[in-house]
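User: Structure please.
Assistant: Input sequence and predicted structure:
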Amino acid sequence: MSEVVVAIPTFRRPESLQRLLAELERLETQARLIVVVADNDAENHAGYDLCRSWSGRYRWPLDPIIAEERGIAQVRNALVARALSYPEAAFVAMLDDDEWPSPQWLDALLRLQGETGADVVEGSILFEQEVGAPAFEPGFDGVSSIRRPTGPVAMLEGAGNLLITRTCLEKLSAPWFDPAFALSGGEDRDFFERVKSMGGRFAWADEALAYTQVPALRQNLQWVLNRAYGIGNTEMRIFLKYRPSLAAKLKEYLKIAAALMLTPLLGVVLLARPRRAADAWRRFFRNMGKLAALAGCISEPYAVTHGE
């Protein structure tokens, strides 16, 4: 069976990391695993210390490291470099420290990769909300479950539940994740764009379920609108990075202008339907984020930690 490095970035969430490590022990798989945890808190390194305390009594080989340079892209790069140092590892599977997998998670990713030959496979993520939390329309980043039908797809959504082939990573030059997106996020989408540009293929495994719990501070309209702004901001930065044609730029700018004119009207018209109105404002803030990126403003939401 394949050897897989499960790569986990962590930053000041020892309780969530402990839950994730416990659930990884319950995996139902014949794969040979190595769990690498990269703690991005070089000062306090609570995640690193937690892993060291579990050394020798954990189901899988546990390899904690400290990624000293701050940033989500930097810690992902440290994980990839460490994973590739294991010569028998054919795959790198990524989970964020605020997630936990179903028992069938890894085998579902491996099975679909074998069936499709995809370079990168993403699994679905189910978001658990507290009782009484606001209900949002599907598609709200950070609070809505992420699911797609199983099979090949043109593009993926994030690095929170991912399987990457060693061959894919070795074809790319380091850094695999662009450090320019250190505190803004978007390093995963930029990574996918790089993979796609070299002819890489993607697939989605809906059966490869991971779960996450939405922190209380996310369960309000202000947070999700700020999140939409940040997503739009990084989307535009990635769009511009790959030097689109003049025609592509004009098309994108027209879409932004139309959205900024129409979505506020929808937000007012739909006041009697709060979920629909919130979705209109989400689209408005996402396009405001794009406009800000065009003006050179960068949103950096990863400067703040969510969860424990």
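DSSP finds nine helices and nine strands in the chain.
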